[in-house]
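Is this the right way to post structure tokens for a design question? Let me know if I should format differently. Anyway, here goes:
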């Protein structure tokens, strides 16, 4: 009798950890974008983000080891110039030449660095040549109110039926979590990807974890 009761309790705990609990789901996260910095200056805009992201990056339903990644994207008036980025974080100087993303029509830069702690980061974007434009962006920090495990726990519990219909009782895929900002509000995109590459995505309030919208495969 005691053995049967022990087995029942153990099965229930395993279901919570693997099926819908925050701890189990956190182990399936292959991208977690937790910080944003954004600013505008002289008709240009810049957004930077800090993430833990799997490498190599692939939406294949298989969670892999993550590495820190800091990305900067700038929308600049003159797209024909070559731009160099510089900024300081944690007492160290970073930067280099930016690449042009022809799809998004933005200039980009990425580097692996420790998670920034500054409430503001100052980015300088300069073009080469005499009389070339230079931009200084004083970018404010945005962070989600909920820790990752609490966010996944809230989404997993409120969307238990939808997730069960999408991937069965035990989710065996990968999860993308991305902080977003719209005006003064911040949100999390939470995407569940199965082994076939199908995605069930939710938009959740960054402070409460309340699901505001969803999109199925």
């Amino acid at each position: 009798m005691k053995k049967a009761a022990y087995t029942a309790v153990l099965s229930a705990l395993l279901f919570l950890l693997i099926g819908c609990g925050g701890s189990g789901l956190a182990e399936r996260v292959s991208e977690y974008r937790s910080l944003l910095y954004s600013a505008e200056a002289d008709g240009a805009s810049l957004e930077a983000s800090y993430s833990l992201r799997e490498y190599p990056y692939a939406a294949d339903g298989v969670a892999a080891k993550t590495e820190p990644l800091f990305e900067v994207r700038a929308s600049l008036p003159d797209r024909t110039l070559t731009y160099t980025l510089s900024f300081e974080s944690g007492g160290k100087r970073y930067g280099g030449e930016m690449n042009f993303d022809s799809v998004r029509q933005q200039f980009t830069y990425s580097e692996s660095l420790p998670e920034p702690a500054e409430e503001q980061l100052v980015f300088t974007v300069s073009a080469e040549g005499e009389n070339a434009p230079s931009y200084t962006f004083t970018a404010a920090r945005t962070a989600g109110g909920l820790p990752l495990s609490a966010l996944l726990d809230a989404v997993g519990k409120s969307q238990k039926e939808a997730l069960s219909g999408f991937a069965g009782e035990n989710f065996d895929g990968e999860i993308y979590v991305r902080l977003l900002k719209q005006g003064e509000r911040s949100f999390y995109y939470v995407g569940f990807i199965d082994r076939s590459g199908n995605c069930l995505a939710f938009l959740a309030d960054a402070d409460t974890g309340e699901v505001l919208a969803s999109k199925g495969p």
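Format looks fine. Someone answered above. Worth noting: Residues 22-29+144-215 form a domain with the Nuclear Transport Factor 2; Chain: A, fold (CATH 3.10.450.40). The helical segments are 2-20, 22-26, 148-158, 160-167.
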